[in-house]
Amino acid sequence: MNKDAKLWIGIVAGLVFVLVLTIGYMVYQHSKMQNLVEEFDIQKEELEDEYAQLAIQYEGFKLDINNDSIQMQYENERMKVQRLQEELKTVKSTNAKRIRELQKELNTLRAVMRGLVATVDSLNQLNQKLEQENKVVTQKYQEATRTVSKIKKDNEALSAQVTLAAQLSAVGITAEALNKRGKETDKISKATQLKFSFTISRNVTAEIGEKYVYLRIMKPDDDVLVKDRANVFVYEDQEIAYSTRKLIEYGGEDLAVVMYWPITEYLTPGSYRVDIFVDGNLIGKKSFTLEK
């Protein structure tokens, strides 16, 4: 073999070697690139899963928000998660720069989520504390109201007892028909006046001083004997007619009282009744009969 042939063989062998190396490198690079693409796909899928989980967390967190400002912040962050989630679906897995940016956005959104959760938990705890304090205050108020109501009722009962204790009482009531000589008579035809005698009992709790004693003389038909229909006094918040009245000076001790009714009208035989009033209270009554 001559020298030129050997040279060409050497050149061809060198070229083949270089070609083999080049092909090997290209195969290696392709394999490496394929591995990177697969790795990028996996990273993108994992990031999509993480965004999906975060979106679910935001949706669930919505149920616990009762604050308007936090609700607005939550809505903004939730919409941002949805927007980035949609963008991630369109980003190519080989766009490493945008994938990294979306990963950073995810970390930021998680931090915001944790902050919202902490804030809402704090507000819920505060609300629970305030509700408990309000419950205690309400209970104390109700207890105070019941106490005041009981005291008021007790005072009203005590006042009623004092009022009742201070009420005067007429005892030993007698009713007589007198003739023109001032003698007692059973005959109505001979009677010229009616005499009523009674004693106002001792009562140290009653108010002393001048008082009017009112008599209401009821005829058999329950009509009141009156000289003037304008003669009225107040009893149980109503004005009622009286037959006669007398001013007395009550000093807290037994006081004998005598009152008269001059007969100037026709009286029918039958059962009569006299009611005695002082200080707007009925203090005694007496039934009597006048015969023909």
Describe the structure.
The strands form 3 sheets. A 4-stranded antiparallel β-sheet has the order 6-3-8-9, with no helix packed on it. A 3-stranded antiparallel β-sheet has the order 1-2-7, with no helix packed on it. Strands 4-5 form a two-stranded antiparallel sheet. It is rod-shaped, with a radius of gyration of 57 Å. It has 3 helices and 9 strands; from the N terminus they run H-H-H-E-E-E-E-E-E-E-E-E. The chain folds into 2 domains: 38-135; 170-290, Immunoglobulin-like (Sandwich). It is of the alpha+beta class and 292 residues long.
Instruction: Give the number of DSSP strands.
Output: 9
Q: Order of strands across the biggest sheet?
A: 6-3-8-9
- The residue ranges in which pLDDT falls below 50 over 5 or more consecutive positions are none
Number of distinct helices: 3
Reading off the top of the CATH hierarchy, the class of the largest domain is best stated as Mainly Beta
What would you call the shape? Answer: rod-shaped
CATH second-level architecture of the largest domain? Sandwich
The computed structural class is: alpha+beta
The CATH topology assignment of the largest domain is: Immunoglobulin-like
Helix content: 40-55%
Gyration radius over CA: 57 Å
Mean pLDDT: 83
